[in-house]
Design brief:
The strands form three sheets. The chain has a six-stranded antiparallel β-sheet with strand order 1-2-3-4-6-5, with helices on one face. A three-stranded antiparallel β-sheet has the order 7-9-10. It contains eleven helices and eleven strands. It is globular and about 100 Å long. α3 packs antiparallel against α6 (about 195-215). It is of the alpha+beta class.
Length: about 325
């Protein structure tokens, strides 16, 4: 459904259309009560969608509503419009990480900065028992201020809830987006196994690898080939020569096939990235050279006094030969 400008959704007035994702259309709207612009996401589709999509959409609202972190999209409100749920969130100005890396690899310093912010946002979600499960460049937004925001917790699953039977790995993904999503799945997702926070860390590693190399790590011609690559192959582009060894080790540890070999928490990952994101301190300013003009006469007088003392000491220890040393006495007299 497409809404024209001026349409009313609850207490919000639609200003314009912003875009669409796998599960919803996003509109710019005005909240007259608080005098601010917001983003409203509605379930997409020409007719009422199947209940599973509505359920997942509602899950997104519940998951995101529990999170309060600068690297996670802020959710203001939820409601229903014509029987369909909607989510009201902060309005962001910038572009997706997908758009940012379309032109190729990012500078290492910038990639590390983005990666650290993503890891910190994931750590906040994991602390609440929430796994994203669909982390990819399309779900990461870079604001004009350079802040990373994690979007779309529509596939998030509360890990503290009782787990149901394993699902088909493509069951939680729209058919049209299966290639884009499958390329960022963890091996356990591909196998339909239980998913925990370490699955997000694998997806993070795929994204980080792509930021550094400009190439998708495991995406192949078909979804089946991509899944096989995730399970058995190394990334298609090597990091050697592209990133420092310490950074390469972090990425490859995230991409371990077994979750036990990866970082065990997003906080550990963020801590490791924090050490690599430190910028060198600016060079210390050199002290200004002394001004020689007015101080130079005093320097010569001080030097003369020192030479006079040395001369007097030498005279005191030299045997008299009946001749008075003239130079030291004259110098001493001048200084006296």
């Amino acid at each position: 459904m497409s809404l024209p400008a001026g349409a009313v959704i609850g207490p919000y007035e639609v200003v314009g259309w912003l875009g669409a994702g796998g599960m919803g259309e996003v509109y710019r709207a005005r909240d007259a009560r608080l005098d601010r612009d917001v983003a409203i996401k509605l379930v997409a589709g020409p007719s009422v969608p199947e209940s599973s999509r509505v359920d997942r959409f509602t899950q997104e609202a519940r998951a995101a509503g529990q999170l309060n972190h600068p690297n996670i999209l802020v959710v203001y409100d939820i409601g229903t419009h014509d029987g369909l749920p909607y989510i009201v969130s902060e309005l962001l100005d910038g572009e997706s990480l997908r758009r940012r890396i379309e032109g190729g690899a990012l500078a290492t310093r910038k990639a590390v900065d983005y990666a650290r912010q993503i890891a910190e946002g994931l750590a906040a979600a994991h602390d609440k028992g929430i796994v994203h499960r669909d982390l990819k460049p399309d779900n990461l937004f870079i604001t004009t201020e350079g802040r990373v925001k994690i979007l779309d917790f529509g596939l998030a699953k509360l890990t503290l809830a009782v787990e149901g039977p394993a699902k088909n790995p493509t069951e939680d993904t729209e058919v049209g987006a299966v290639l884009g999503t499958v390329g960022y799945m963890s091996p356990e997702q591909v196998r339909g196994e239980h998913v925990d926070p370490r699955s997000d860390l694998f997806s993070f590693g795929v994204i980080f690898h792509e930021m550094l190399t400009g190439h998708r790590a495991f995406t192949r011609a078909t979804a089946a080939d991509t899944m096989a690559a995730i399970l058995k192959e190394e990334p298609s582009a090597a990091l050697s020569g592209v990133a420092p060894q310490a950074l390469e080790r972090i990425v490859m540890r995230c991409l371990e096939k077994t979750r036990e070999a990866r970082f065990q928490s997003a906080r550990d990952l963020a801590f490791g990235l924090e050490g690599l994101s430190d910028t060198p301190a600016p060079a210390a300013r050199r002290p200004n050279p002394p001004r020689p003009s007015r101080q130079r006469p005093w320097a010569w007088l001080a030097l003369g006094a020192i030479l006079s003392v040395i001369a007097l000491v030498l005279v005191a220890w030299t045997p008299w030969r009946g001749v008075t040393p003239p130079v030291p006495l004259r110098l001493s007299a001048q200084l006296g």
